[in-house]
Specification:
This protein is mainly α and 394 residues long. Among the domains are: 1-69, 434 Repressor (Amino-terminal Domain), CATH 1.10.260; 323-394, no CATH class. It is built from 22 helices and no strands. It has helices spanning 9-19, 24-31, 35-43, 50-60, 64-68, 73-78, 85-93, 108-123, 127-148, 151-170, 174-191, 194-211, 214-228, 235-254, 258-275, 288-301, 305-312, 323-340, 343-356, 358-362, 365-375, 384-392. It starts with 8 loop residues before the first helix and ends with a helix.
Length: 394
């Protein structure tokens, strides 16, 4: 019978704690989390929440990825995704070398069409397809940008660096994701585009959210809002501004500040009322639906799981919403339902997350932690629950 992996998050927390010769009480105190919550998580009795993982990582002075075990190298190797990472890293390394004499870039529009297709593909959950095509396109666009020295070229390159961030972060290579963001900022500065600069700061803030560095993330949000204020008024600017507020709302929720999270949600809701659904504006999927989905996420971050599941009942996902975004929402909802004891609904939403974007769900931390939380109650779940765990590789 399938059983909880010996290398689940709680087991890694224990191993890291013992390496530092610390007691459970000491880590609980350093992380400022309840002792019973810490011990039950370490034992694998309950799932590790993002808040607890970040708090323990800070207390033990390691990265969040060290605690969660990302990237999940065994599964990446099986899916033949690990071999696609090095070419992306190499493509990011040639950013300042100028035009490559051995590359004859195609016309700008052809490159732009390919870059747009990759933005669509990664949001459809086609991570492997995107990762295969990305390195060559980055190198071609790098030469084109250095040769033309115009905004169009730098903007195109910034878009490709953003896609490199998307692929790297979805696969758990957060060091590479950070490098991709640095390159995105470098290209955006050369194009002098305040809106792209705002997107960069939004994405960078998310990296600090992941690591539990909420104060730095909030500072980046404020900087992003100031950067956007320099752009000409437009729907595009409003969409990015609204998305920054949504990111800030989740950050405030995870730091347990209900007042600030509600304030950011309210501002995002006000903006969404004027922009409407803006799924294709910089592929941020901003609009009333994204505000509603983020409200569910914020309530979950505040440990208000009952309210989160109640809020989710009022969410209707549009048919044209990106599959990757749908999958993320189903994973978040599954986590809340697990904590309320609605195990069957939780597992059903894990299945929905897998169906919407299987490559993303397989490497999604929330999917894995929720599965681990359901593992203790597996007798109440169907046989397909065990096959899901085999698919995850846990």
């Amino acid at each position: 019978m399938h059983s909880l992996s010996h290398d689940h998050t709680g087991a890694r927390m224990k191993r890291l704690r013992l390496e530092r010769h610390l007691t459970q009480q000491a880590v609980s105190d350093l992380a400022q989390v309840p002792y019973s919550t810490y011990t039950k998580t370490e034992q694998g009795v309950i799932a590790a929440s993002p808040h607890l993982i970040a708090a323990v990582a800070r207390a033990l002075r390691v990265s969040v990825a060290t605690v969660t075990g990302q990237p999940y190298t065994t599964e990446l190797r099986v899916d033949e995704l690990d071999i696609l990472i090095r070419p992306i890293r190499e493509a990011l390394d040639v950013y300042e070398l100028g035009a490559d004499p051995d590359i004859l870039p195609r016309a700008h529009q052809l490159l732009a069409d390919d870059a747009q297709a990759l933005l669509v593909a990664v949001r459809a959950g086609e991570i492997k397809q995107t990762a295969q095509a990305l390195p060559g396109l980055i190198q071609e666009a790098t030469t084109a940008a250095h040769a033309a020295l115009g905004w169009d070229g730098w903007g195109l390159l910034a878009s490709l660096y953003r896609t490199a961030y998307d692929v790297s972060s979805k696969l758990g290579y957060y060091d590479l994701a950070g490098l991709a963001l640095a390159r995105m900022d470098w290209a955006a500065e050369r194009g002098s585009d305040a809106v792209v600069g705002g997107i960069y700061r939004y994405m960078r803030a998310l990296t600090y959210l992941r690591e539990g560095e909420y104060r730095t993330g909030e500072r980046l949000v404020r900087l992003g809002l100031r950067t956007l204020a320099q752009a000409e008024p437009s729907r595009e600017r409003e969409v990015v501004t609204g998305q920054l507020h949504l990111g800030a709302a989740v950050m405030a929720g995870r730091s347990r500040d209900r007042g600030r999270s509600d304030g950011h949600l309210a501002e995002a809701e006000r903006i969404a009322a004027s922009t409407g659904e803006a799924v294709n504006v910089h592929w941020l999927a901003f609009g009333p639906t994204n505000v509603a989905v983020h409200r569910v996420s914020v309530l979950a971050e505040l440990d208000e799981y009952g309210q989160a599941t109640q809020a989710a009942r009022g969410v209707t996902i549009p048919g044209d919403w990106p599959k990757s975004r749908k999958s993320h929402h189903y994973a978040e909802l599954a986590r809340s339902q697990m904590w309320t004891g609605d195990l069957d609904s939780s597992f059903q939403n894990l299945l929905r997350a897998r169906k919407a974007a299987p490559q993303q769900a397989r490497y999604h931390q929330t999917v894995r932690e929720t599965y681990s939380g359901l593992e203790a109650a597996r007798r109440q779940l169907p046989d397909s629950f065990l096959s899901y765990g085999s698919w995850l590789g846990v």
